[in-house]
Specification:
This protein is α/β, with parallel strands linked by helices. It is built from eight helices and seven strands.
Length: 247
Amino acid sequence: MTTLQDKVAIITGGASGIGLATVKAFLDKGAKVVIADYNEEHGKAVEQELKQTYKDVVFIKVNVAEEQQVEDLVAQTVKTFGKLDVIFNNAGVGVQKPSHELTAEEYKRVIAINQDGVFFGAKYAIREMLKTGGGSVISTSSILGSVGEPTSMPYAASKGAVNQITKSLALEYADRNIRVNAVAPGFIESGMVNKEALGEFYDGLVAKHPLGRLGQPEEIAHAVVFLAENDFVTGTTLFVDGGYLSK
């Protein structure tokens, strides 16, 4: 069993929500963490707050849809901490709109961040992991990568792609000690997914989860820690969904 003590990790979308919860979980385990996020002002504020408790945490601004920026992110991480052991490709966006009204730009933006960003992150992380004898690539999928959802077609398509990227890379690099997995959350109480923002729709969303509630970011972070530490798990999409897909 791998321990995260002194491991070096990049967490994209790390300044808020699931990403931030995972940053904290990794730091609590003794990892050295790069918070990678597009929101520079908020990311730097999070970095300064965490530095009051943890020593080895830095913020790097990145747009994961831009390949050169992801390559630079990995290079800066290695320059700062000397290696890269784990990448959590977590950054993601969605658009909720009738599919016949979607613009090409709206569709491409979701695919670029959610799907291309996972490819770029895995590509450059694996290049470093091949130099050091192994590592762990983890990506955020979704229950919507396995079931359809009206008005969320680009998001569902991108998350289905994440599941297949995960399986293919896991097979390709297993013999070089690089494990590739994904975590697939149900609806998580974070950002705009809360009772105040959803109003009358909140109770209906909760009802889709047999456990009778939405998930918490810390519960997904716990799953990511498990995937990072368990040496015998690869090619898996781990559903953390309150029973959503069991119905």
